[in-house]
Each structure stands twice: as structure tokens, then as C-alpha cells.
């Protein structure tokens, strides 16, 4: 009988812990995201949507600026997850590819720029603890992580472009080359 009772308690503990995580998100992450959205939308209103659209259109013409420069700047300035929202200014055909590049950059910038994704800093710190124990430089690790990351981000964006084009042709879907905001 004790086994059944212990099993039921452990089962309920799973939901209690889930509730604690949910409350933590509601009190920590959700207000942060709302404030970041407000700040980004305020900046867009101050600068002007037309100017932001022009910048996005210019950056979308070049695969280098689309998947190398824009994710690096967006991640450094806006951090995770707001860098992903920059994709809304790109033409529809590039949105999946931008997401592929920018979502990965939120991890690979963390060693040099901890403000980018503080929720996952523990991963880098765990690896760097092992590197420190071995007598290696954490700075060198962070720099290599960053450099490999930005190269990989670019590849992810470019490969997703190729995949998106292939699937859109296969499915007979025409993706827009212009910026469409709603």
C-alpha cells in the first residue's frame, strides 16, 4: 500500500513542480518579454516603420547581411528572444531562414555576452568550469564558441533558404519577396 501512496505523491509532486515553474515564468520571464516588446515597438515607432522596413529590405537582399550581420547585431542589442522578432521585418520567404540563424545565435553569443541569454548561461559556465580545471582559458573558449556559432548561424540560414525554396517549389507555393507587415 505504501508503494501506491508514494507513487501517487510523486505523481502529484510532478504537477506541483510544474506549477512552481509556471509561477516563476509568470513572475520573471513574462514581464521581461512584455517590457522588451514594448521597448522594441517604441523604438520602431520613434524611428518609423518605413525606415525599419527599408533597412530590413536592404539586409534581405544579401545572404551575408541576412544571416550573418543581422542576427549578430540583433542578438547583441535585443538579446534572446527579441532578436527573433526582427524577422517580422523580412520578406516572408526569408523568415524561416532568419529564425534558424537567429535562434542559434542566442546560445553561441553567451560566452562573450552573458546578457544575451542569461537563462542558459549555466551551460557555458558548466563547460568553462571543466576548461578551467584543465588549465585552459575561458576567454579562448568563449571566442571559439562565438566564431563557430556565427559561422554555423550563417550556414543554418543559408541551408534553410535552400530547403524553403525547394519545398515551396515542390508544393507550388509562391513566397513573397517583399516585406509585408500587418
Account of the protein in words:
By secondary structure, this protein is mostly helical. It is 76% helix and 0% strand. It has seven helices and no strands. The chain has helices at residues 2-47, 49-60, 63-78, 82-85, 95-108, 121-133, 138-171. It is globular.
Q: What ranges have pLDDT less than 50 throughout 5 or more consecutive residues?
A: none
The H-and-E topology, N to C, reads as HHHHHHH
Strand content: under 5%
The secondary structure category is mainly alpha
State the end-to-end CA separation: 60 Å
Mean pLDDT: 84
Fraction of residues in H or I helices: over 70%
The biggest sheet amounts to: none
Q: What gross morphology would you assign?
A: globular
The number of strands is 0
Radius of gyration: 21 Å
Count of runs of 4 or more consecutive helical residues: 7
Task: Map the helices and strands.
Layout: H1 2-47, H2 49-60, H3 63-78, H4 82-85, H5 95-108, H6 121-133, H7 138-171
Helix pairs in contact: 1-2, 3-5, 3-7, 5-7
Summarize the structure.
This protein has 182 residues and is mainly alpha-helical. It is 76% helix and 0% strand.
